[in-house]
Amino acid sequence: MNYNNFFKVLSYIYLILLTIILLIPLDSIFITNVISEDKHPSNYSSYFIHFFLFFILSFIFNFSFQRKFFLLFLLISYSIFIEFFQILFERGFQIFDIFFNIIGILSAYYLYNYFIIK
């Protein structure tokens, strides 16, 4: 498997896992067995988690695909839609999650384009 195909497979796997993780309700048995409700991250630490998760997503996808502006549009759209879908899965909606998702995406995009590409 060549370098580009490896990152494509990795990016799709990460996207699927991230979608599942972000849509599981926080009070579900899967989450409460791992982390008790009183130990769930605060809003402030969850913002850092969102930044980090979407930074990784953007960084991996930047290695996988050539159309960078289209990719940037898709990732930002995904980050907005996933937050709205959380309403349907009883996770709740927070505008600051979207803000930190986008900051993570843009940070990885600029890091990749200005330090890795050059």
| Biggest sheet overview | none
Write down the domain tally. Answer: 1
Mean pLDDT: 83
Task: Please identify the structural class as seen in this structure.
Answer: mainly alpha
Low-confidence segments? none
One letter per element, helices H and strands E, the order comes to HHHHH
Can you offer a commentary on this structure?
- The protein has 5 helices and no strands.
- The chain is mostly helical and 118 residues long.
- The chain has one domain (3-116).
- Helix 1 (3-23) runs antiparallel to helix 3 (43-64), helix 3 packs parallel to helix 5 (95-116) and helix 4 runs antiparallel to helix 5.
- It starts with a helix and ends with a helix.
